[in-house]
Every structure is written in C-alpha cells, then in structure tokens.
UniProtKB/TrEMBL annotation:
InterPro entries: Amidohydro_3, Metal-dep_hydrolase_composite, Metal_Hydrolase, Metallo-hydrolase_Enzymes. This is Cytosine deaminase. It comes from Kribbella pratensis. Signal peptide: none annotated. Residues 113-400 form the Amidohydrolase domain. CDD domains: Bact_CD. NCBIfam families: PRK05985.1. Transmembrane segments: none annotated. Residues 32-49 have a biased composition (Low complexity).
Length: 407
C-alpha cells in the first residue's frame, strides 16, 4: 500500500482540507489538521508501505486537467525551432506535414513522451489524442504513443482516436487501417472534413459509422468546414449517430460552422446535437465565431477543451497548458462573472471527464488522485493568471514538485 497525505489544500479555493491518497485513489477528505491516518513525517519509507506528506500551505487544489483534443504524435517539441512552412490551407498543411515529418523524426516515442511531459508539467493528467493513421505511418504512431504513455507509468491516461489526417476514401487502404486500429484498442476512429477532403461526405461518414458499429468504438470527426457546408455535415453526422444507435459515442472537433449559422438554424442544430448525444471539442481559437455554449449546455451537449497540436508542422503555437485554452474560451465569449470564469476552469477539469470515459473525476473520494496545486485565491484567479503548477499529482504519483517536473 502506498499512501500520500496532501495537507492544508483548498479545493476550488474553498475551506482547507487534508486529502488522503491510497494506492493512487483519493480515500479521504477531511478538514485541515484533522487527519490522523497517515504519517506526519516527510517521505518516510518502510518495507510495507510508503507514507509521504506534502504541506500545501493553503494552495488551491483542482482536479487534474483533461485535454479533450490533442495530437501528441506529431510535435517537434524539444527540438530546435522549426520555421513554419506550407500553404495556409488544410490541404496545404496536410501536404507539408507528409513531406517534412520524416526529417524531424515524426512520429516517435520520444516525441510523444516530450509532449506528454509538457502536459503533466501543466497539470493535464488525462487526454484524448488523435494519432495520425495513413498509408505512410500506418499504425506506427499509435504504437509510439502507447509506448510513451507506458514509459511515464501511465501518469497521463491516454485515450486514442485513430485519425485519418490524410483523408479516408481518397486514400484506399485507410479504412482497413482504421478498422485494424479499432480492433486493437483505439477508443474512437476519426474523420476529417468529409466534404472537402474526400469530396464525398456521405461516403466517408457511412464508412466510418460502419466500422464504429461493427467494432463498438466511437467516432470523432475533425470538421473545419465553415458555414452551410459545415452545417450540412453536422446534419449528416447527427442523422447517422441516431440511426446507428451511437448516442454518447460521437464527437465533433472544431466544428467552426456551429457558431456561424443563422440563429434559428443554429438553435435547431444544437437541439439536434443534444438529441443525438453528440459532444463537441474546441481549442477556442481567437479567430473563430463565438459558440452558443449556453444553449449547448442547456441542450446537454458536452463541451471539451483541447490544445490541439502544439509546436507541429501545422502551427508553431501552443505549450500544452490547458488553462491557456480555457482563458481563450473565456475571452472569446466575453466571460466576466465569477460563475462564468469558474465554468471555464471546470471545462478544463471536471467537465472533461466524459471525453476520456471517466465516471468519477474530481476532488472526491474514490476518484483517481489527479490533483493540481496552484498559488491562487480562487478559480477565477486561476483562469486569468494561469499561474505555475506548484504540485501535480497524477494517479497518486507526484509528477511536479515546487514547479519542477519529476518525470
Ligand atoms: Zn485536431
């Protein structure tokens, strides 16, 4: 048995508590100073158990962040700066990445591990990552990501979407790779702009849904297409989700069109998404149209935040800090009140749980001990300053101590 006592921390900025963690799970929360069940010595080890104590000194505690949309396989993080190249269109970036990635050793175990370490540094302890599956790398990227996650002892829980970045129908053989990835444990298969990449939205979506139903996996579609073309594909996805009985297993990533539709159609679309149990992930780019997030919330459409790729051949931006994304979401929507600012932090933490299939994610007894300690007054203060993560506990393991990464 391994136990860890986090003494004197303030969940969400509330009253101070002591948190007891046993075998990687939160086993008790009690008012600060009242815990008696654990050693009060620091890092005392015996042959039978390891008791550790961390004095929080009133630091604010949050549940670990959940990055609901990442690409941990394709970053050049840790390498010398790579100047951005390629045409600034989706197709231009796809072509550029395929032409250049070998030069930077993409994908690799080391590259994926570097990204996951940055996630941990910033308090992310679970992620849904899209991993490129194409005729060049086949399923090698997925194997790399799994190996990287294992090398970190599972500190970051990684859920994999087999992602056809180079297209589906236009690249014969990719459907077989997606099918194989699903058979081998990918939680979802991805899609990509069915209309503009494959130029056959019905064909791509029907093929994806056929695999998903047969293999019992989810679908997570990158939908960059704007306006009516994007709206049309939302409808195709919602119809198929209901027909296939995949409610609760389908996600739209980016989905810029939703914020661009005329109000009446947008409201219908939100209701349709809610009825079909479709979730939605965003990186909240400053250039996108604001979302009808209050309507989505009312309609029961789960919203997840993600960093997308960081420092890759698509974009030089991003450092893996989900709080920066939550702040971007707040600014994009003009959030001001404490309640709304707290909601933005919740999107990065507790509300992300469903995207990685966690039943219990929070500062509660029985949850995996994923805890972030920050020097902040309350959740709104966390959001606007995104202060250093003083401590990060991942599955009971101390992965950041005094702001320094330990793994
Ligand atoms: Zn993406």
């Amino acid at each position: 048995m391994t136990s860890l006592l986090l003494a004197d921390v303030r969940p969400w900025g509330g009253d101070a508590v002591d948190v007891t963690i046993v075998d990687g799970v939160i086993s008790d929360l009690s008012p600060a100073g009242s815990s008696t069940g654990s050693s009060t010595e620091s890092s005392t080890e015996s042959s039978a158990e390891t008791d550790q104590r961390i004095d929080g000194h009133g630091l604010l505690a949050l549940p670990g962040f959940v990055n609901a949309h990442a690409h941990v396989d394709k970053s050049w993080w840790g390498q010398p700066w790579v100047s951005y190249g390629g045409e600034p269109t989706t197709q231009g970036r796809i072509a550029h990445e395929r032409a250049e990635r070998d030069k930077y050793g993409i994908p690799s175990v080391g590259g994926a591990k570097a990204v996951l370490r940055e996630f941990l540094r910033h308090g992310t302890t679970a992620t849904r990552t899209h991993v490129d599956v194409d005729l060049g790398v086949e399923l090698r990227g997925i194997a790399n990501v799994r190996e990287a996650a294992a090398a970190l002892d599972g500190a970051v829980e990684v859920e994999i979407v087999a992602f056809p970045q180079d297209g589906v129908l236009r690249r014969p053989g990719v459907l077989d790779l997606l099918d194989k990835a699903a058979a081998e444990g990918a939680t979802s298969i991805g899609g990509l702009d069915p209309a503009t990449i494959d130029r056959d939205p019905v064909g791509q979506l029907d093929a994806l849904f056929e695999i998903a139903v047969r293999r019992g996996v989810g679908i997570d579609v990158h939908l960059h297409d704007h306006g009516d073309l994007g709206g049309f594909q939302y409808e195709l996805i919602a119809e198929r989700t209901v027909q296939a009985g995949l409610q609760g297993k389908v996600n739209v990533s980016h989905g810029f069109a939703l914020g661009e539709l005329a109000p009446a159609r947008r409201s219908e679309m939100v209701d349709q998404l809610g009825a079909a149990g479709i979730s939605w992930t965003t990186v909240a780019p400053a250039t996108s149209a604001p979302l009808p997030f209050r309507e989505m919330r009312a309609a029961g459409v789960p919203i997840g935040l993600g960093t997308d790729g960081i420092r890759d051949l698509w974009s030089p931006y991003g450092d893996g800090d989900l709080l920066q994304i939550a702040r971007g979401f707040a600014r994009l929507h003009g959030l001001r009140t404490d309640e709304d600012l707290t909601y933005a932090v919740e999107l990065a933490t507790t509300y992300g749980a469903s995207f990685v299939h966690r039943e219990n994610h929070g500062l509660t007894v029985g949850a995996r001990a994923d805890i972030v300690l920050l020097d902040a007054e309350n959740a709104p203060d966390v959001l606007v300053r995104a202060p250093r993560r003083e401590y990060v506990i991942a599955g009971g393991q101390v992965v950041v101590r005094d702001g320094e990464l330990q793994v």
